[in-house]
UniProtKB/TrEMBL annotation, chains A, B:
SUPFAM superfamilies: Metallo-hydrolase/oxidoreductase. Keywords: Endonuclease, Hydrolase, Metal-binding, Nuclease, tRNA processing, Zinc. InterPro entries: RibonucZ/Hydroxyglut_hydro, RNase_Z/BN. This is Ribonuclease Z. It catalyses: Endonucleolytic cleavage of RNA, removing extra 3' nucleotides from tRNA precursor, generating 3' termini of tRNAs. A 3'-hydroxy group is left at the tRNA terminus and a 5'-phosphoryl group is left at the trailer molecule. Homodimer. Binds 2 Zn(2+) ions. The gene is rnz. Its cofactor is Zn(2+). It comes from Mucilaginibacter pallidiroseus. It is an enzyme of class 3 (hydrolase). Zn(2+) 2 binds at residues 66-67, 212, 270. Pfam families: Anti-Pycsar_Apyc1 (PF23023).
């Protein structure tokens, strides 16, 4: 089952050096999930050929402008493009007031419904459970209420060994039961063990999105062992005081989080406008966690194909 | 005195085909005036090397998102870049509520002051009068309250004929009086006429910004004889019904407005996302008014140097 993350923006606070502020899109089993929606996200979607009509779920981590100021524009474009499907919006509660105020003064009545699910940073909440995944909030520690999001693929059914199934001429209506682990009893009474008919499914993948936050072990337990960790790394570690003061993380600390939580792979992003090039940030994170990459715009990270 | 208009965006409603929605920046005597501020305007400013710190005046025509959704991001960036100077914001009154709500939830207290001047579409208002220009609102006819803006350069003082002034050895303290039209009486009692010492200054230039509006002669009188007219031209004339229904103008009508009002030059913009290329719109406007150009992003139109 496809599970991939495409970076649409990785700048913090202000757009600069052709880096856009934060937005990412997940493609999980051909469903698109947008995480954060900074100003210019629509333009980035056009650039990377991501259709707004395919997005049914939007997650907003917090109400600093560099994480949501592109949302009302995107919602308006979906409206102008005749969207009919409801949209699920996972966000801090005040965002509803902000959106509704802007729609009111533009005299816009959206031609589709928004289903709001409000997040808070008090404790992890299970906010979505569909056929492919579950999504939990990750309470972070930033200057204003902020949550990350933990996407966990569901365990899939066992995979049929096609040749064996055909050889035994097992009728289709029995497939699901076998995928679920049942043995097969042939019409002649012979029993074929499930182990001889199926193989294990792929291990479910998981993705943790952690932006913005100060280094704080309170969320480490929740994200233990994820397949891919996105962690903010706003500053180099020589700016640790500034990171603490603004409730951000350094690249070194992001590498530490990945090591401590046993992530398989790390992406760092949310780079301060003070860094024109990003190699130093990457090197610093890699000094703690080798399997690290930069959240470069347009780049897609594949968890499973 | 420099007077030029740089186009930052010319799309209507949604960003598309690498066209950003509406924003323009005027440079008048090295002061920058931003007109409308769609999503992505900050990014366009970076692209065309326009410094936000140099903008002291922002004009918002109306509260459709494609004219203002980049504003809160720009205001935030000015804040993060340590702006101290007050900013003048000319806009419909509800924009204050929208801005303040967003600043409230991001817990941002701007480090500079915004001086609001509220516009309305009831009648033209003189909203700015500084040493270089006056600015009036142009009440337009759109679906929600909308005003254009009429920028008029002030008549400058007469220009001294440098050689003549040096030849007569006129002391500097007398220059201003002579520029204002006074004759010069030399120490020996000889009177030199002002006409022999000065030439006429450049004719003051004017710029009318008209977006968005249905074709409606109510504002024609106010914009008579402008040096440069920017007029929206959302559709080709075969979409006249749609233009009327959505309170927009066709390219043909924009050409007519320029002809009827005796503009010297016309720029058309605010192009619908249905037009991938713009030549047909240009040809149609030119069929009514030859001296027409397209509002192409990054292009600067010079009224005086």
């Amino acid at each position: 089952m496809k599970f991939e993350v495409t970076i649409l923006g990785s700048s913090s606070a202000t757009p600069i050096f052709n880096r856009n502020p934060t937005a990412q899109v997940l493609n999980i089993n051909e469903k698109l999930y947008l995480i954060d929606c900074a100003e210019g996200t629509q333009q980035q979607m056009l650039r990377f050929d991501i259709k707004g009509s395919r997005i049914d779920y939007i997650f907003i981590s917090h109400l600093h402008g560099d994480h949501y100021l592109g949302l009302v524009g995107l919602l308006s474009s979906m409206h102008l493009n005749g969207r009919k499907k409801a949209l699920q919006l996972f966000c801090p509660e005040p965002l509803k007031e902000i959106i509704e105020l802007q729609l009111k003064y533009s005299e816009t009545s959206l031609c589709y419904e928004i289903n709001y699910v409000f997040t808070n940073d008090k404790a992890p909440q299970l906010i979505l459970d569909n056929q492919d995944i579950t999504v939990e909030t990750i309470p972070l520690d930033h200057r204003i209420p902020t949550t990350g999001f933990l996407f966990k693929q569901k365990k899939r059914l066992r995979k049929l060994i096609k040749e064996r199934i055909e050889e035994l001429d097992i009728p289709v209506p029995f497939y699901t039961a076998i995928k679920r682990g049942k043995d097969w009893e042939a019409p002649d009474g012979t029993v074929y063990s499930n182990a001889s008919l199926t193989i294990d499914p792929e291990e479910p993948k998981s993705y943790a999105y952690c932006s913005d936050t100060i280094y704080n072990p309170k969320y480490f337990n929740q994200i233990t062992g994820v397949s891919l960790l996105y962690h903010e790394a706003t500053f180099l570690n020589d700016m640790l005081d500034r990171a603490n003061q603004t409730h951000h993380t350094t690249a070194l600390q992001a590498g530490e989080v990945a090591t401590i939580t046993g992530a398989e792979r790390l992406i760092i992003g949310h780079f301060s406008a003070r860094y024109k090039t990003l190699n130093e940030l990457l090197d610093e994170a890699r000094s703690k966690f080798e399997n690290t990459d930069l959240a470069v715009e347009g780049k897609t990270f594949i968890l499973s194909e």
